[in-house]
Structure formats: structure tokens, C-alpha cells
Write a structure and sequence with these properties.
The complex is a heterodimer.
Chain A: H1 14-17, H2 23-27, H3 30-39, E1 42-45, E2 51-54, H4 57-65, E3 70-71, H5 110-118, H6 124-128, H7 131-148, E4 152-154, H8 163-172, H9 179-190, H10 197-220, H11 226-232, E5 234-235, E6 238-239, H12 242-273, H13 275-283, H14 288-298, E7 304-308, E8 312-314, E9 317-319, E10 324-327, H15 329-332, H16 367-384, E11 388-390, E12 397-399, E13 405-408, E14 410-413
Antiparallel strand pairs in A: 1-2, 3-7, 4-14, 5-6, 7-10, 8-9, 11-14, 12-13
Helix pairs in contact in A: 7-16, 8-12, 9-10, 9-12, 10-12, 12-16, 14-16
Chain B: E1 2-5, H1 15-19, E2 24-26, E3 32-34, H2 45-54, E4 60-63
Antiparallel strand pairs in B: 1-4, 2-3
The chains are: A mainly alpha, B alpha+beta.
The complex binds protoporphyrin IX containing FE and iron/sulfur cluster.
Iron/sulfur cluster binds near residues 10, 11, 12, 13 and 32 of chain B.
């Protein structure tokens, strides 16, 4: 798969014609958000099927709570291709946008029970069970990087991207060896597929078939994994529909992969370009948990969408029934009215009510797992590669749209300073 | 000084639990509650304030022993 984004006409006026796939927006959206906050805090565009873009913290949070009129049934940031004017790849028929991935794509009452079904698997205590595996995995990945002898490594592809697919595969009880395939599917659904509908459709079909096969297997041979747990669960005394289980599994794979590796990648990009923060974290690893929250704030990867079920006037913006609204959690986290010096990464920031994981009833169910993965990934990297810098700042590529993060991240590691792994790494 | 979690507002972000596990606990669904009667000993005041300042749902507050909101 290539990282090629389609060419779109340049943006003249961000307030009325913004483009979340514009190269400027992908590389660094912060200046664009700053202008919008001053000029037009809820911007509008007709591109990619049309949407509204709030940029202030208070507005994003308020919208996230307007669950009675802003529905989650269509949480993808672009429209179905039928309405996707200018899409050269739109098939004539047969493509449907509708996502069945509860709880993220559902409203109450389905949202309420489908969320409760998965929350225990992601509680802080359950998450802690996966820590030793994650740590060993990170060490093993670095063993491989060090063994290669390369002094420049792609930290996005060969480190960040390798961690979440395996952790989530283990949690779901599916084959960790298929992680390359999972990665391709997820990028096809959430990243490259957003601007390439046939690819998106293909990956979604394959994912559903894959999970239906896993489900059949687990019905025959139940295990201790999350799929088996979901199959054993009862809601109002009834087992859960198999398509619902497949949709939820699909969501956990998709939501757990692109997001987390993007945030690990952004964190390493930051530490490669800010030696003072890197040195501080090495000197005082106790700062890592607050640093992780601050990096999540500053480089929030995820933008979700809502669809209006009725006409609403939002601060004078005439949102019409059927309109899409982009839940700009990343922009909210850079609002100077909420955060002092929002564009500065302060790794021991005291007040940090960031909404990188969303806010309200759809708050990321996997946030404890994501946090654990980030903390461990950063700890192990700093332990094994205490000195590193960006090899070529201009070569870094960023993906964006639904999930923003580096996809090519050439990091020059100081071979003299690197720390070899312990000989007995166990999994 | 006592720490109070408003269970109506809590959405289970678990920021409080990761910052001040001495003061709050979370259930299997991630929802938080104060440990015991929520009493905050002086040496944990800073951690308690950190939990307050990091809850995205504004679900945590500090109150004086007489129940009035504490100044932060
Ligand atoms: C740094 C990594 C991650 C970030 C930034 C992130 C972000 C988000 C955000 C912003 C939402 C809210 C969606 C909305 O308001 O519509 C969300 C929901 C969700 N996330 Fe994550 N996520 C991450 C990792 C994970 C992981 C590892 C999992 C585990 C499988 C996961 C599972 C979910 C689920 C199941 C939901 C739906 C919750 C609901 O609708 O009630 N996420 N995530
Ligand atoms: S940080 Fe706030 S929302 Fe999260 S568990 Fe604690 S009280 Fe609940």
C-alpha cells in the first residue's frame, strides 16, 4: 500500500472550504485552528461530502454531550461516495458507508449495553495483565532493530506500528502472526480507504469475514479470550447477535491499532526533536505518565464524526438534519482558552483535562490499554536508545483525516549509546 | 479535606485513578469512587489536586470537612 493521498484543489478560505486532507492540514493543523478560532470557531466545508469543524474546547465538549441531536451512527469523517463529489474511484453501486461497529457507531440504548459488554476487558486491572507481554514485545522489537546494525531506523513502521496489533490480537485471542494483515486492513478502513472507497469496502468485507470465521471457531472451541467472553455474554437474558459480536471485534481491532501506533509515533517524533524533554524523561522516568497525557493532548490522533438528526442552531451556525460534524478533539486540546501555552509541550503540565480520548458517553473504551502501551513503548525505547534525533525532518510523512500520526519516521540512533537487551527476554 | 467523586458525571476516564490511586478506586467498568470516606491526608493534597485538575468530566471536587467547596 502506498501513502499517496489524492490531489485536491488548494484551500483559499479555511472558514468556508477547509480540507482535512490538505497537505498543510496533515503536516501541522495548529496554525489553521488558531485562525479559525479567531475568525470562525465552527467552520464549514462542502469537501468530502460536507461537514462542520469546531475548533474551541468548549464547543467540542458541548457537542460531544449533545447526544440527543448529534448521533454517532456515522462516525467516519468523510461521506459515502454517492455524495462524495469529485471522487474518481466511486463504484457505480454496491458500496455502503453504514458502519456496524457498536458501541462507537451506536446511540442509546444499544450504545449503553454494548459499551458495558466490553468495558471490563479494558479496566485498569485487566489492562495491567497485558503489561509484561507488551514490555517483552517492545524489547524484542528493539533487539531486532539493534541487530540490524542500521543507524537510522523507521520508528513508525518498525516500532510504533508493530506494537498495538499484537497486543490487541492477544486480547481478542486471534493470531498475532497476522499483524501485518491487520495493519493493512485497518489502514484500508481508516486511513487510505477514506479517499479510496473500493479499497475501504474490500477491507471491511475481509475483516467481517475474518471475524465471522473466528466466531464460528470460538463457538466450537471457547477460550479465555474476549471473543469467547462476548459470545458467552447475555443481554436481557439473551445471547448477543453474532453480527453484533463481529462488529464489536472489528471495532476493537480498528480502534485499537491506527490510533495507538499514531500516538506512539508522535511521541517519538516529539522526543527526537526535543532533546531537553528526552533527557528529562531519562533522568526522571516517574514523569512518563504525565508526559504521556501531555503528548496525547498535544498530538491527539483521533477526530470522530457525528451526524445531526435534527436542525440545530449552534452559536449561530445553522446545522441541518443530516449534516456531519467533525469532533475535533485534537483542535480542542490546543485551545488557549483552556490550556496555557497550548502549543508548548510541558511534560509535567498540572492542569490537563485533555479530550484526546473523547469526552462524555463515547469516551474511549480502550484508553487504559492505549495509555499502558504508550508508557511501556516510550519507557523501553528510552531505556534502549537513550540518544536519538530525527534523521531527516523533511522526509517524515504524516497520515491524517480520521487518525493523525507519522507513517515514515526516520530516526538516527546513536549506536555508541545504545543499550543491548537482556539475554533472556521472555514472552 | 475530602475528595468527592460525582458518579453522575464520571465517565470512567480513569485519569484520577492513574494519578491518585491512594485516594480513588475504580470498578470493573472504570467508574471511580473515593476510597473510604475520601479523607485526604496533607501529604496527598497535591495528588488530590492533580486528580481534580485532570478529570475531563469535572467529576472530582475537594470539599472542606464541613462540606463546603475547598479553594483550589
Ligand atoms: C492513543 C490511542 C487512542 C486514542 C487517541 C483513542 C481515541 C478515541 C476517541 C476520541 C474515541 C471517542 C469516539 C467518539 O467520541 O465518537 C474513542 C472511542 C473508542 N475507542 Fe479509542 N482511542 C485509542 C485507543 C484505543 C484502543 C487501544 C482501544 C482498544 C480496543 C480503543 C477502543 C475504543 C472503543 C471501543 C471506542 C468506542 C467507545 C464508545 O463509543 O462508547 N481505543 N477512542
Ligand atoms: S478522571 Fe473523572 S471521569 Fe475519569 S474516572 Fe476519574 S472521576 Fe471518573
Amino acid at each position: 500500500m502506498t501513502d499517496q493521498m489524492p490531489q485536491t484543489p488548494p484551500v483559499e478560505d479555511w472558514t468556508s472550504d477547509y480540507d482535512i486532507f490538505d497537505p498543510d492540514y496533515l503536516t501541522d493543523p495548529t496554525l489553521i485552528w488558531d485562525d479559525l478560532r479567531n475568525e470562525c470557531p465552527v467552520a464549514h466545508t462542502e469537501r468530502w461530502g460536507g461537514s462542520w469543524l469546531p475548533t474551541k474546547y468548549d464547543d467540542v465538549v458541548r457537542m460531544a454531550r449533545m447526544v440527543d441531536v448529534l448521533s454517532s451512527t456515522d462516525p467516519i469523517v468523510v461521506r459515502p461516495p454517492e455524495n462524495n463529489a469529485g471522487d474518481p474511484n466511486a463504484p457505480e453501486s454496491g458500496y455502503t458507508q453504514a458502519v456496524n461497529a457498536p458501541p462507537i457507531s451506536s446511540d442509546a440504548p444499544v450504545h449503553t449495553w454494548s459499551r458495558r459488554l466490553i468495558l471490563p476487558a479494558f479496566s485498569p486491572r485487566s489492562t495491567a495483565n497485558h503489561e509484561p507481554y507488551t514490555r517483552a514485545l517492545c524489547h524484542q522489537l528493539i533487539d531486532e532493530l539493534q541487530a540490524s546494525g542500521d543507524t537510522t531506523v523507521d520508528a513508525a513502521t518498525n516500532y510504533a506500528q508493530q506494537i498495538p496489533p499484537r497486543v490487541i490480537a492477544r486480547l481478542l485471542g486471534i493470531d498475532e502472526g497476522m499483524s501485518e494483515q491487520f495493519t493493512d486492513w485497518v489502514r484500508g478502513v481508516l486511513e487510505l480507504g477514506l479517499t479510496n472507497p473500493p479499497l475501504r469496502q474490500k477491507c471491511r468485507d475481509e475483516l467481517r469475514e475474518f471475524f465471522m470465521a473466528e466466531i464460528k471457531d470460538r463457538i466450537a472451541n471457547p477460550g479465555e479470550d474476549l471473543i469467547s467472553e462476548l459470545l458467552a455474554a447475555k443481554v436481557d437474558g439473551e445471547p448477543v447477535d453474532l453480527l453484533h459480536v463481529a462488529g464489536t471485534c472489528n471495532l476493537m481491532l480498528v480502534a485499537g491499532i491506527d490510533t495507538t501506533w499514531s500516538s506512539i509515533g508522535s511521541a517519538l517524533w516529539h522526543l527526537a526533536t526535543h532533546p531537553e524533554d528526552r533527557e528529562r524523561l531519562i533522568a526522571d522516568p516517574e514523569l512518563i505518565p504525565t508526559a504521556v497525557e501531555e503528548l496525547l493532548r498535544a498530538y491527539s490522533p483521533v477526530t470522530m464524526a457525528r451526524v445531526a438528526t435534527d436542525d440545530v442552531d449552534f452559536n449561530g451556525c445553522p446545522i441541518k438534519a443530516g449534516d456531519k460534524i467533525l469532533m475535533n478533539f485534537p483542535g480542542a486540546n490546543r485551545d488557549p482558552e483552556m490550556f496555557d501555552n497550548p502549543d508548548e509541550v510541558i511534560i509535567d503540565r498540572q492542569q490537563n483535562r485533555h479530550v484526546a480520548f473523547g469526552v462524555g458517553i463515547h469516551r474511549c473504551a480502550g484508553s487504559n490499554l492505549a495509555r499502558m502501551e504508550m508508557q511501556v513503548a516510550i519507557e523501553v525505547w528510552l531505556e534502549r536508545f537513550p540518544k536519538f534525533t530525527l534523521d531527516d525532518a523533511d522526509a517524515v510523512t504524516w497520515a491524517g483525516g480520521q487518525v493523525r500520526g507519522p507513517r515514515f519516521l526516520p530516526i538516527a540512533v546513536d549506536a555508541e549509546a545504545q543499550v543491548p537487551g537482556a539475554t533472556s527476554v521472555t514472552t | 479535606m475530602r475528595i468527592v467523586v460525582d458518579s453522575e458525571k464520571c465517565e470512567g476516564h480513569n485519569r484520577c485513578y492513574s494519578l491518585a490511586p491512594e485516594l480513588v478506586d475504580v470498578d470493573d467498568y472504570g467508574y471511580a469512587s473515593a476510597i473510604g470516606d475520601g479523607n485526604v491526608p496533607p501529604e496527598l493534597l497535591e495528588k488530590a489536586q492533580l486528580a481534580v485538575d485532570n478529570c475531563p468530566e469535572y467529576a472530582i471536587t475537594l470539599v472542606n470537612d464541613d462540606g463546603t467547596p475547598a479553594e483550589s
